[in-house]
Specification:
The protein contains eleven helices and 15 strands. It has 330 residues and is of the alpha/beta class. The chain has two domains: 81 residues, no CATH class; 193 residues, Glycoside hydrolase/deacetylase (TIM Barrel), CATH 3.20.20.370. β3 and β4 form a beta hairpin. α2 crosses α3, α6 crosses α7 and α9 runs parallel beside α10. The longest helix has 43 residues.
């Protein structure tokens, strides 16, 4: 009996020792893993107490931080909203500039931040495509730079277009051509040639109608018909609308704006459709030119003859000749 008791006690002690050792190993492993994780976060993670938008992101590793920022930033996003026209109240609803979060740039700031410091989100503004400015016609661009635009409205005058294109090419000048849809549909090759030469293509309406005498739907049809036929011929989607005959009212501009267009008028009119002498056209332009001016012309014989001298004199005075949109979008 005594031998059996002694043997039983020996087994029990060994079991206890082995069990204790196992527990110690497990504890050390857990502690080691925990210590390793703490050290890793201390070296590679966000410093303690760094805050963003009221959240403590201290100790987070990059992957964890990215996921957290994606969720947190949802409340910081602002959707952009275009300006619009309230036809019932006859007022313009202003645009709202949107805001998105640059997650990567924000992460970079957080990872570099000192302990216990707040960090702001890096935001990127989202500018609406239609602003309140679209609801007023443009007669000129900003006058802070010596540049001007030559606007060529086209509904006829095919025979003079090749000469004008050659002149623009010779002087390395890019201009804005406003085509009617009926003309572009009838002469697609010539319309495509203008576009292929690198010139800006604008919308002069589907036909040469009078927008101020139309209702909303008719104005919309005038613009969209022109857009469709111009795109078919040139591949360019026009974003500028020059009303036929310069005829417009508040409704015309509002409808154009809602369709994403800027309505373009002019600063100087060559009145070349009256076929004056080339010297008259030159004087009308050169004597009154100013920064940001939009110069209206058509494909006529005296215009084609006057263009070389107009361009030379403008360039000698230090003016750059660029498309309308380049001036408006500076």
């Amino acid at each position: 009996m005594a031998g059996k008791t002694w043997f039983s006690l020996v087994i029990t002690k060994r079991t206890l020792i082995i069990g204790a050792v196992c527990l110690l190993v497990i504890a050390l492993a857990a502690t080691g893993s925990s210590v390793y994780n703490l050290v890793r976060r201390r070296i590679h993670g966000v410093k303690p107490g760094v805050m963003i938008a009221g959240y403590d992101v201290g100790g987070m590793l990059e992957a964890e931080l990215y996921d957290a920022l994606v969720k947190i930033s949802e409340n910081e996003m602002v959707e952009a909203r275009n300006a619009s026209y309230d036809w019932n109240r006859d007022v313009i609803n202003p645009e709202q500039v949107g805001q998105i979060i640059d997650i990567n740039a924000t992460m970079s700031l957080i990872m570099q931040a000192a302990a216990h410091t707040p960090v702001e989100f890096v935001t990127v503004p989202v500018i609406p495509s239609i602003t309140q400015a679209n609801f007023a016609p443009y007669y000129r661009g900003p006058a802070d730079r010596p540049w001007v635009s030559l606007m060529v409205n086209v509904d006829w005058g095919n025979e003079y277009i090749p000469t004008m294109l050659e002149t623009f090419k010779r002087y390395n000048v890019t201009t804005s051509w406003f085509l009617t849809g009926t003309w572009a549909e009838k002469f697609p090759d010539l319309a495509a040639e203008i576009s292929a030469a690198g010139h800006e293509i604008g919308n002069h309406g589907g036909w040469h109608g009078m927008p101020s005498q139309m209702n909303q739907d008719q104005v919309r049809d005038l613009i969209l018909t022109g857009e469709e036929k111009i795109m078919d011929a040139t591949g360019q989607k026009p974003m500028l609308f020059a009303p036929p005959a310069g005829d417009f009212n508040k409704q015309t501009v509002a409808v154009a704006a809602e369709l994403g267009y800027k309505t373009i008028l002019w600063t100087l009119d060559t009145i070349d459709w009256e076929r004056p002498a080339p010297t008259v056209i030159i004087d009308r332009v050169v004597s009154r030119i100013q920064n940001g001016a939009f110069v209206l012309m058509h494909p006529t014989e005296p215009t084609a003859q006057a263009l070389p001298l107009i361009i030379e004199q403008l360039q000698q005075r230090g003016y750059s000749i660029v498309p309308v949109s380049q001036i408006l979008n500076q």
